[in-house]
């Protein structure tokens, strides 16, 4: 790195790592011209037959970003790869704009970098090792209705982080005893157990995948009510991975379990001590960031030296809190626990009975999961929303002579078109407009935050892309064709070719 006071030029060499550990790396040289607000990217990967296919890591041409009159401009050479050009224009440039806006909103971010508490080199190697060991098998055998790629590789990444965090904890035993509160699918417990640690996962509801795990993986279906009877004195670590209503309780339970009990906490949904939804108090902050600060304050009240880190997982909520050391001596532990209970009473405005519950009005999750993915919204509301969005996207088609898909629009642009009562109906089902439109994938294509009308599928295409089971059972031409009834130019396919029926509703 070189910096000159007169020129304000900074040079950075980046080593770009592929997702698969066995693939080759790429290298970029980044030139920061701070005086002229220009950053230029050069591909400096050594030329070798093994390194020819690196286009998935970085563009093989030079490009730059310039900030001029509060406008960010992307400059690309004329001989550049078209696919890579599109990636820079559609993905990278909008992301830079977003980062710039976020930086303006948060002057002092809680967490500037990822994986600050562990070695990034060790993480990269360990993650790829666990990914090969558990990832493929779990994705192929995933019995849940959720996306296996997201949940499997997210838990593999969290397991990697914890294993390296524990590896660094040389003061205590190399093999940890842990309790995962709100363990969900139990995959994290499965991996940590297989890697030699001893623990248990507890959740209010059993999942189908629990039956897939071997008998040495301890998973319990149980409702946890924060109280003196629900502490874990034998545990070295408590884990709260998207633990919902138990999130603010994780550092409290850890403190009351023992002086030496540590915790790892990855907050997602925001809850108060009594199980009600947390309400933002400062409108200048996002709900998520304010909640992270709130949980951090609880950790500090519980006497933890609290570290904040950012994980590398496929989620927008990646900030974790880690409490390993106490700010007080062990002989004052009983007094600190008493002070914590006083704080809880004050914060929740409820009295407590230690044996039964630290908060009498605590609301645990229901053991029966409610379906909340926009599929339970009334058909009239769904039809109204679909009609409203489609009309907007196709408004220019009447004047066109040829059949057209219409225009493309961002999700946030389409939300402004909908009546308040429709937005409330979607919110009540824990889904947004994007979820509803994806449920109607035969009409809409949703990609990179943008929506466009989808070209209707032919009968042959439906048979071709059906990868589940017996193709003879695939149903075509059963329901009325939406395009035939609603597109200004009708359906572009013939009655025979269209996978839907050309009849009037």
Automatic annotation (TrEMBL):
It holds the Pfam family AdoMet_MTase. Keywords: Cytoplasm, Methyltransferase, S-adenosyl-L-methionine, Transferase, tRNA processing. Its EC number is 2.1.1.211. One of its GO terms (molecular function) is tRNA(Ser) (uridine(44)-2'-O-)-methyltransferase activity. It is found in: Cytoplasm. GO terms for biological process: tRNA methylation. It catalyses: uridine(44) in tRNA(Ser) + S-adenosyl-L-methionine = 2'-O-methyluridine(44) in tRNA(Ser) + S-adenosyl-L-homocysteine + H(+). One of its GO terms (cellular component) is cytoplasm. InterPro entries: SAM-dependent_MTases_sf, tRNA_uracil_MeTrfase. Its main location: cytoplasm. Belongs to the TRM44 family. Adenosyl-L-methionine (AdoMet)-dependent tRNA (uracil-O(2)-)-methyltransferase. Probable adenosyl-L-methionine (AdoMet)-dependent tRNA (uracil-O(2)-)-methyltransferase. This is tRNA (uracil-O(2)-)-methyltransferase.
